[in-house]
Design goal:
With 307 residues, the chain is mainly alpha-helical. It contains 10 helices and no strands. It folds into 2 domains: 89 residues, no CATH class; 145 residues, no CATH class.
Length: 307
């Protein structure tokens, strides 16, 4: 027993192993017969004081406690794994995005394959367009950007308003001496006004724009077109003024202008009534307005540089 007590005091520096839950000193004594074995070791004076190894009883205690601890740890891990399985079964399964993501990637690749050819053609056309534009600007010595009207509908509306204004004013002038009254004057005025605005627009669009072209044959064609439209418009407005003058003469309202110098110009045109002179001036003004709109109202003033 002295040897056992000495061994106990010498091993007090090591921390004692805490038995697992459910196994205490009484259980170990009952299972390993520690008291009996301790008496036997004391009778044999074992273990000796200078012995560094554990006795057989102590080794049995360590092995038993280790085995019990391993069993408890295994049960704890099994319980943990079972709890995790139960929680995963109860928890809602997370949505799987891998399938839709793969489908989306496949769809994108298919779309890219379908539009790759069209995209390459569009890029080539854009590059060719820029090259053609640069070549056109160099050939025509243009150093400005093209001018585009903000609204072609607005320009067309202005032309329509000009035609309506001329038609209304001319209708009132024709209706004074027209046997058909205001309706007859309005029909005549609408036809003359529409033709006058159309000739003015064509003179600006096909004539004035091409007068500034660098190539002489195109400039000559523009001058010819402008001269032809101007001549037609002049004939139209002189015809309308003369017609109005003849109506006044038939109605007996012809006025004698006398030899006043202010009327010498109109006498050269053989216009005797103030209404015909006003009609001629009105037609000339509307024609000039329509020509300016045809020149720059719908496209860039330089031919082939705009739309």
């Amino acid at each position: 027993m002295d040897g056992g007590q000495a061994k106990t005091s010498s091993g007090s520096g090591r921390p004692a192993a805490k038995p697992p839950q459910g196994m205490n000193a009484a259980a170990l004594d009952k299972r390993l017969h520690l008291k009996r074995r301790a008496r036997e070791d004391a009778a044999r004076n074992l273990p000796r004081q200078d012995d560094e190894n554990l006795s057989a009883a102590e080794l049995a205690v360590v092995e038993t406690v280790g085995a019990e601890r391993a069993r408890v740890d295994e049960q704890r891990l099994d319980a943990r794994a079972d709890a995790e399985r139960r929680l995963r079964a109860l928890a809602p399964s997370p949505q799987d995005f891998s399938g839709p993501a793969l489908d989306a990637r496949l769809a994108l690749k298919q779309t890219a394959g379908r539009i790759a050819h069209d995209w390459a053609e569009a890029v080539a056309r854009a590059a060719q367009g820029r090259a053609d534009l640069d070549a056109f600007k160099r050939a025509n010595e243009l150093r400005r950007a093209a001018v585009y009207p903000r609204s072609t509908l607005l320009q067309a509306g202005l032309l329509f308003c000009a035609a309506v204004f001329e038609a209304l004013f001319s209708a009132a002038l024709f209706a004074e001496d027209d046997a058909r009254g205001l309706l007859g004057g309005a029909i005549t005025a609408v036809g003359l006004s529409g033709a006058n605005v159309t000739l003015g627009y064509l003179a600006g669009f096909l004539g004035l724009r091409y007068l500034q072209h660098r190539k002489l044959h195109i400039k000559a064609a523009g001058a010819a077109a402008f001269g032809a439209m101007t001549l037609l418009a002049l004939m139209l407005n002189l015809f309308a003024a003369n017609w109005r003058d003849q109506l006044a003469a038939v109605a007996g309202r012809q006025l004698d202008m006398g030899s006043d110098a202010s009327f010498h110009l109109w006498s050269l045109l053989q216009l005797d009534s103030p209404q015909s002179i006003i009609l001629l001036m009105l037609g000339a003004g509307v024609w000039v307005f329509a020509a300016l709109k045809g020149y720059s109202g719908f496209d860039d003033p330089y031919p082939d540089y705009g739309k």
